[in-house]
Structure formats: C-alpha cells, structure tokens
Amino acid sequence: MESVRAAARLLADADAERVVVFTGAGMSAESGIPTFRDSLTGLWARFSPEELATPEAFEKDPELVWSWYEWRRAAVEQAAPNAGHEAVAAIGGTLITQNVDDLHERAGSPDPVHLHGSLFAPRCFACGLATDGPVCAACGGRSRPGVVWFGEQLPAGALKRAVEAASTCDLLITVGTSGLVYPAAEIPHVAAMNGAAVVQVNPQPTPLDEVATVNLRGTAATLLPAILKEAAILRRP
Ligand code: OAD
User: Is 148 a pocket residue for ligand 1 (Cβ < 6 Å)?
Assistant: First the structure.
C-alpha cells in the first residue's frame, strides 16, 4: 500500500530517539480489550462513566467502582499483547499511552508514559500515596484504582514528559485513539505545531485526520508491523 510506504519512509528517516508513539484504546482492541467509544462494543456504550469513572462515583459507591476496575484488570491479565504492541516496542523512542493496561510493558516497551494512570497501581483516595491493600498504610484512607477519572488532573510528571517529547520529536505515530479526550489529545497537535510529521493508524476517521501527514485506515496489529518491516527494508544500504 502506497501510504504504508510513505509512513515507513518517515520512520526510516527519523532518528529513533526523536520518534513518539501515542496510543489509545484501539491499540489493545485486537488483544480483546474493549475500547471506550466504539458503538456497541465500547465500554461507554455499555456502562455509565458518571457511575464508574468519577471521584463522586467512588465516594458514593466505592465497592461498585472498585469491582468494575477489578473486572477490567482481570480481563487485561487474561489478554496478551498483539503484534501492534510488539511493533511499538521495536520502534522505540518515547511511548505515550492513554491506556491503563500493561500490554505495552509486556510487549517490551520499558517505560511508557501513562497519561491516564494504570489498573495495576492503586493509590490512596485520601492522600494519593501508592497502596497495596484495601487501606492506606500511611493515613488509613481507602484504596482507589490508580487511573485518572473524569474531572481529575493528569499526573503532572507524565504530562510534562509527554509534552516535552511531543514538542521535540521529528515523527509522531498516533495509534487507536479517537482524539476526543483532552488534554491527552493535545499531544499529536503539539508535535504537528512543532514541525513533526504525524502518522495516524486508525480504521475510522478522527479529528486527528487534520494533523496527519500520512493517514492510514486500518488496524494496529496489521499496519504497525507492515510499517516496521517496510522501514527496515528502506533503511538497508
Ligand atoms: P476511544 O474508545 O475513544 O477510541 C478508540 C479508537 O480506536 C477509535 O478511534 C477506533 O476507531 C480505534 N480503533 C478501534 N479498533 C482499532 C484497532 N484494531 N486498531 C487501531 N485503532 C482501532 O479510546 P481512546 O481514544 O483511548 O480515559 O479514549 C481516550 C480516553 O477516553 C481513555 O483513555 C479513557 C476514555 O474515557 C480515561 O479513562 C481517563
């Protein structure tokens, strides 16, 4: 496909240290983890974010919220990284993810920037410290899932790292995100504004179409390995 070749050309020409991969829920769809906004299968088509993904929901019914995240964590534990996650690990550079699963780490990406937290890092609802039981050892507060909820700030360190990497990269590859949730969705725009090329991998149109230098309509597990393979061929002397 012509556009796979164009994306591969950008990857082959980029300094690996100056490549950013930015991922969303579509990255893990082919591992069997549901996205949020796909009609019918998306989590927000089946569950109410107001009842499950806000601090107010946790205050009202902590058991319900906790058990919903436990269900999601268990589903992730049953899942395996797909060929797309493996390609992302092989691309290297800086990986910025909105995903709360650990499939990137399990595919070999050593240090993803988790903009929306993690299903595997509970913390205290009262003081914010990491917890490893139902109550906080420091203050006795209740443990909560270590994810970012609606109405909450993104972790400051992660956001800073993400903005720094996006503003200094030569190439950003955005994969499997609807580009609707801010401030995370700023990241591809920051890269584009600073002169980077943007490759998008998504089977559907998104608002990021307008910043994409190369826009590939297809799935993560098919297109990312294809781009990587083609880039390796182009790099050969
Ligand atoms: P969304 O569910 O909003 O979007 C998923 C995107 O993945 C859509 O654009 C799909 O077209 C695309 N997609 C589906 N299958 C794919 C595949 N196999 N390969 C590539 N792309 C595919 O998920 P996010 O953009 O990640 O926030 O959502 C952003 C944030 O909204 C999430 O991090 C979460 C949610 O509320 C928090 O929990 C704070």
Answer: yes
Please state at what angle helix 83-91 crosses helix 220-235, rounded to 10 degrees.
Answer: 40
Backbone angles phi, psi at 100, to 5 degrees: -100, 5
Query: Do the Cβ atoms of 175 and 219 come closer than 8 Å?
Result: no
Tens of pLDDT, residue by residue over 39-62, are 889 999 999 999 999 999 999 999
Q: Is 104 a catalytic residue?
A: no
If one counts every other C-beta atom within 10 angstroms of the C-beta of residue 101, the result is 25
Query: Is the Cα torsion angle 109, 124, 76, 165 positive or negative in sign?
Result: negative
122 Cα–ligand 1 center, Å: 22
- The pLDDT tens digits for 76-123 are 999 999 999 999 999 999 999 999 999 999 999 999 999 999 999 999
* Residues 6+ away with beta carbon under 8 Å from 180: 37, 206, 207
